[in-house]
Amino acid sequence: MSTATKAVIRTGRKFEQVLQGARQVFMTDGYEGASVDDIAKAAGVSKATLYSYFPDKRLLFMEVARSECDRQAYETAEPTDFNAPPRDILRLLGRKTLEIITSEFSQRIFRICVGESERFPELGREFYQTGPLEGRRRLSEYLRRSCARGELQIEDFDLAADQFIELCRVDIFPRVILGVDTEFSQAEIDRVVDGAVDMFMARYGT
Amino acid sequence: MSTATKAVIRTGRKFEQVLQGARQVFMTDGYEGASVDDIAKAAGVSKATLYSYFPDKRLLFMEVARSECDRQAYETAEPTDFNAPPRDILRLLGRKTLEIITSEFSQRIFRICVGESERFPELGREFYQTGPLEGRRRLSEYLRRSCARGELQIEDFDLAADQFIELCRVDIFPRVILGVDTEFSQAEIDRVVDGAVDMFMARYGT
DNA sequence: ATGAAACTGAACCGATCAGTTTATAGTCGC
DNA sequence: GCGACTATAAACTGATCGGTTCAGTTTCAT
């Protein structure tokens, strides 16, 4: 998987070093903002070495961005006890969702994917699948089981899952992504999450 | 308001021309992507003239971006007959919301505000206020009146307004902003809007 | 120890870009 | 017609950046 890019990539001792430096610089400076010299410096590697591994800046960026998209899918996976009542589960998942949204890492990768989705169309797609779509898949799965248990009554599971996640981002997400605020009080979080749970249960509770 | 920036900006015959050219180029190419030469050409003006009006590229951009933020507030204002039943009103407002979100103009300005909110922190704030906050204010106002009429029962009007708007963006917004899709069938739109109205009424209906 | 492959550092190339300058020319009131 | 103002095209400056080249050094398997 990591060498999926048409065998462009040579082997060598410092390969991982280059990738690590690129990751760091790209994630903080974006594609245009990052200079290859900076990346080489951050990686502790000469520019010639860098260019012996990757044919150009574009491909280096894509390799980094794609691996970061994958990372978010794995990082956000977390085992949960699904035997509690739906209200409790949802409140938990809501808090977790907000944690992810407001995390430094998610903000950065989202910002980069939005910013570069015109220059790198596959990138937006990749992020959509490993992010929102994966989140929906997991929640949808839970909703299905909870419904089978008779705790909820849902017709369109994907819609319901998306709705809940969206409800958890109320006001917080725009503020984060537009740089208005970066941190939020527990009261703010509770207001949104509890509001989401109340609304969800009013609609789909039995 | 338009000359709020420390009186840096001169007046003159071609002032509006410059602004118009800058608007066009910045909105399609972003801040970094736009070259001053391109802007001067698009404005039909010499670079020297451009620089006689604006001291540098940054200020020119900020003037454009701020005026575009204001524009979105005015463009999205539209008189509506608020005497119909809430379900109908909400369905209408939901469709309108989706129209705005999927419009070329909103996408561009949102993308630019997100992308440049680190370089221009005031920009993110400005967009947040003329966009999400203004949308909330209007809907919240309606909800208040509708509640007074006994059609709805709401405790936190701002929260309820944000929730409804957020519900209307379900799945559509991420796909738009990540460049996964640009157009949506009426069926997709109806599914989301009707889902939002159903949920909202289940929670706040009397 | 040797030889090939990997790596270094620095110089270099061509291009782009923000911003300045200069020399020229149109346009106004008076 | 004259002087003050405004505009223009084009050349120029200084800096940055992506990418290349190359002479010399390090690493490492044999």
TrEMBL record, chains A, B:
InterPro entries recorded for this chain?
Answer: DNA-bd_HTH_TetR-type_CS, Homeodomain-like_sf, HTH-type_TetR-like_transc_reg, HTH_TetR, Tet_transcr_reg_TetR-rel_C_sf, TetR_C_Proteobacteria
Q: Where is the HTH tetR-type domain?
A: 12-72
Its protein name is: TetR/AcrR family transcriptional regulator
Q: Give the signal sequence positions.
A: none
Q: Which UniProt keywords apply?
A: DNA-binding
Keyword Cell cycle assigned:
no
Keyword Heme attached: no
| Top-level taxonomic group | Bacteria
One Pfam match, by short name?
TetR_C_7
Q: Which parts of this chain does the entry mark as a DNA-binding region?
A: 35-54
